[in-house]
Amino acid sequence: MPKIIFITADNQEYQVDAVTGQTAMDAALENMVPGIDGDCGGLAACGTCHVYADDQWLERIGVARPGIEQDMLLLTDNATANSRLACQIVLEDDHDGLVLHMPVAQH
């Protein structure tokens, strides 16, 4: 059971217990982490679960996947090379301690 750390744009930290196989978005929604909206329900169709992965974690979770995730991030404000959609990050046991930062706002 990995623990995931979400950090808001104003440096509020939310540590949540996730279930292996769950997405980071679902873990955030189940734990009422503010700033993760998940309006499309995890279909990578809205960008309202945009997060920035810490550099140390990006190699483990991977960069945004070609296709729908990369395409959606192109439409998302303030996307960077570290941007991911939390709905596309499937959590594994070795993701314990994963740090995901959130943008100022989701669009």
Automatic annotation (TrEMBL):
Superkingdom? Bacteria
Which cofactors does it use? [2Fe-2S] cluster
Pfam families to which the protein is assigned, alphabetical: Fer2
InterPro entries (UniProt xref): 2Fe-2S_ferredoxin-like_sf, 2Fe-2S_ferredoxin-type, Adrenodoxin-like, Beta-grasp_dom_sf
Entry's Gene Ontology BP terms? P450-containing electron transport chain
**What are the 2Fe-2S ferredoxin-type domain coordinates in residue numbering?**
2-106
UniProt keyword Cytoplasm, yes or no: no
MF terms in GO: 2 iron, 2 sulfur cluster binding; electron transfer activity; metal ion binding
Q: Does the keyword Iron-sulfur apply?
A: yes
**Keywords from the named record:** 2Fe-2S, Iron, Iron-sulfur, Metal-binding
Give the similarity note. Belongs to the adrenodoxin/putidaredoxin family.
Task: Kindly provide the name given to this protein in its UniProt entry.
Answer: Ferredoxin-6
